[in-house]
Amino acid sequence: MKKVFLFSTALLFFSLPFHTAVKYIALALFFLSGVFIIIKKKSFKMDLLNLILLGFGIETLISGLLYTNELKRVFYAEKDLWIIISGFLIYRSVYLNKDDILKFIVLPLVISSVVLFFCGLYKYYVLHDYFKYHLFTTINRSAIYATLSFAFILPFIEDTKGNMKYLFLTGLVFIVLTLEFLASRNAMFAAIVILMVYFIYFSKANLKFKFILLFIVLFSFVIVYLSYDWLGIKIDMFTKLPYRWYIWKAGLDSYFETGNYMLGIGTNNFRSIDLTPYITGWFEYVGSGHNLFLEILVENGIIGLLFYITFLIGVILKLKSYKDRNNVFFKIAVLILITHILTAMTETNLMKEHGFLFLSLLGLSIGKLEQKWKK
């Protein structure tokens, strides 16, 4: 069954951004084989961290059922959320050795990143539509996925040797190019912060290697900026008041008007908020609150927000208590967490593929740290 789990993991991390049947087959195999291994080895932890995350999932379900506008939509959202939660629980509980992680997670993610970059170029230059240059769903969510991949792969470059090292470095370059073409300001900012944090606190490489990596990132940015008008337009938009401000105001007004402060207006109901009194000449409705913490507050109330913030604090405290700061999985957990918090400021980044990637990689890292801690 371990072989099935590894196969489904490799297939999943390669196909996760694609809308194909392969992804859903991989998800089913991952879940069934993962649960089987956990039951057989009795490795599931009923600790506070897992219980809080499960509590968050249950609370969002209750909120959705109590204040639903459309029952089908609530179940659809809950299905996605529980898949995301299962990623954390299973990868934390199924202990993988480092070689398996390199072969069946890092490598497929690198290959997938290269393939996705060229898919994006095809959509943009052949189909001639900027808004088709995305991996899935929307441009910003695609950029979050790429940034999480960047944060995950970066620490492995110094931690591996030989051809694998250069392969990971190549994947990193393609991810940087993807971020620049997607032109998501928050994601690019998060990637720069990740790189700086890694260089200052974690990297043991000499200055020459750091300057080479920094030069590659900056050089690629300049080339893309000079050859790609949309990147310049998005950078110029930093100086303008974003539409997100009005989306946040509409969400908070709706939250206070309902008076359901504890459980919110209901899971997946943010998209039902009418934006026309706040923004003219734009969309009447949007698919998310463009801020994870605000959306959780609006949709699931104070209880939902407390559950999720408590979960993140629990992860931070667990990492703080771990003494070996040179462990590659400690570095990954910190960088993944930083990525999640930064991108959560302007996007609802606990959805579908990027939500699954975040919690899976976080669960995997914590599981590896706990495994070493026991030894």
Protein traits:
mainly alpha, 375 residues
Q: Regarding quaternary structure, how should these chains be classified?
A: single chain
Give the number of DSSP strands.
0
Give the helix tally: 14
Using the CA coordinates, give the radius of gyration: 21 Å
* Principal-axes shape call: globular
The SSE order reads: HHHHHHHHHHHHHH
Q: What's the number of domains?
A: 1
Helical content stands at over 70%
For the record, give the distance between the C-alpha atoms at the N and C termini, rounded to a whole number.
25 Å
Strand content: under 5%
Alpha-beta classification: mainly alpha
**Main sheet, how many strands, which sense, barrel?**
none
List low-pLDDT spans.
none
- The average pLDDT score comes to 86
Explain this structure to me?
The chain has one domain. Helices cover 74% and strands 0% of the residues. The chain has 14 helices and no strands. The two termini are 25 Å apart. The model has no long low-confidence stretch (mean pLDDT 86). Helix 2 crosses helix 4 (71-93), helix 5 runs antiparallel to helix 6 (139-159) and helix 6 (139-159) packs antiparallel against helix 13 (328-343).
Ordered list of secondary-structure elements with their pairings:
Blueprint: H1 2-15, H2 21-41, H3 48-66, H4 71-93, H5 98-126, H6 139-159, H7 163-182, H8 185-202, H9 207-227, H10 229-236, H11 244-258, H12 292-320, H13 328-343, H14 352-374
Provide a brief overview of the structure.
By secondary structure, this protein is mainly alpha-helical. The chain has 14 helices and no strands.
